[in-house]
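Structure in, sequence out. Go:
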């Protein structure tokens, strides 16, 4: 009996050491990758090894706080028109752009309208849904003329990931996610202490990324993924309609292709106005002319698109 317990104990220790070794290798390689692509500011040499699990946390009273590098300032409060609210990810936020180069700034100045940019890097449709459930934003924003969601194809994948980017994985930052129960979306709380420890593991996140890409996003399951995204859009719209009765809701497909036809058609049925960059311009937005080195839209892209969106929506 003692030999069996000893054998069992040794194997447990070896197993834990193997996990630690794998975690250490991933931690080192991902830090080197982030440093190589220039993600780290000068004050950071590398992210700490498993600094502690952090569930998604958002305080609407402190967003945006541009002076702290947290969101974009509200533009155009001097104008009397009904405002516009923008949701989305780094494209809508204006990653690596000065404020004057962003979509929200240019939209405000060209259309002479207040603009609230509620986007942030790495976010997706679930982050719009989360915000629309908060009473605070309806105190901050009077009824807008338009709500514009800036969509890219990767937003579907982000609905499922445990953590989004290499930075988030190394920082133990859990992604905001929802699951469907009884016809409604319920936020996944990540309260189970054992599951929290499993989900934080670097190799678990890497494997989960592969699983999402290969199986969840497979062609045979693509319709289910789009239906899940549509559920996020429609629930967010219903939340906003409780407060904003006359607002019009727009999904701007910055990236678009044939695979989005099902998504676009069903969003139209739910009352969304659909705009595709491909309908606005024949320019190749994937060319280097319109991209920063990190493959995000540059100022030239928004100089082209913003007047076209204003014309299309008659703002």
């Amino acid at each position: 009996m003692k030999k069996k317990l000893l054998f069992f104990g040794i194997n447990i220790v070896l197993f834990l050491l193997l996990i630690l070794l794998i975690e250490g290798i991933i931690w080192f390689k991902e830090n080197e990758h982030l440093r190589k692509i220039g993600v780290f500011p000068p004050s950071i040499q590398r992210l700490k090894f498993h600094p502690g699990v952090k569930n998604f946390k958002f305080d609407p009273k402190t967003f945006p706080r541009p002076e702290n590098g947290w969101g974009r300032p509200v533009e155009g409060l001097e104008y009397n028109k009904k405002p516009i609210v923008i949701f989305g990810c780094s494209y809508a936020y204006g990653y690596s752009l000065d404020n004057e180069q962003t979509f929200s700034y240019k939209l405000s100045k060209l259309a002479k309208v207040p603009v609230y940019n509620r986007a942030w890097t790495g976010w997706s449709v679930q982050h719009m849904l989360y915000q629309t459930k908060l009473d605070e934003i309806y105190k901050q924003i009077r009824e807008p003329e338009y709500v514009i969601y800036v969509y890219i194809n990767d937003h579907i994948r982000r609905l499922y990931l445990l953590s989004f980017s290499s930075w988030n994985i190394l920082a133990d930052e859990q992604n905001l996610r929802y699951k469907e129960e009884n016809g409604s979306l319920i936020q996944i709380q990540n309260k189970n202490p054992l599951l929290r420890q499993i989900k934080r593991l670097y190799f678990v996140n890497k494997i989960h990324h592969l699983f999402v890409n290969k199986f969840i996003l497979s062609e045979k399951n693509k319709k289910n993924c789009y239906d899940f995204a549509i559920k996020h859009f429609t629930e967010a719209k219903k939340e906003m309609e409780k407060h904003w009765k006359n607002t019009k809701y727009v999904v701007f497909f910055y990236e678009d292709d044939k695979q989005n036809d099902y998504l676009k058609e069903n969003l139209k049925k739910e009352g969304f106005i659909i705009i595709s960059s491909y309908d606005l311009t024949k320019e190749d937005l994937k060319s280097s002319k319109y991209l920063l080195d990190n493959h995000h839209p540059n100022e030239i892209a928004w100089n082209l698109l913003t007047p076209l969106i204003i014309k299309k929506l008659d703002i």
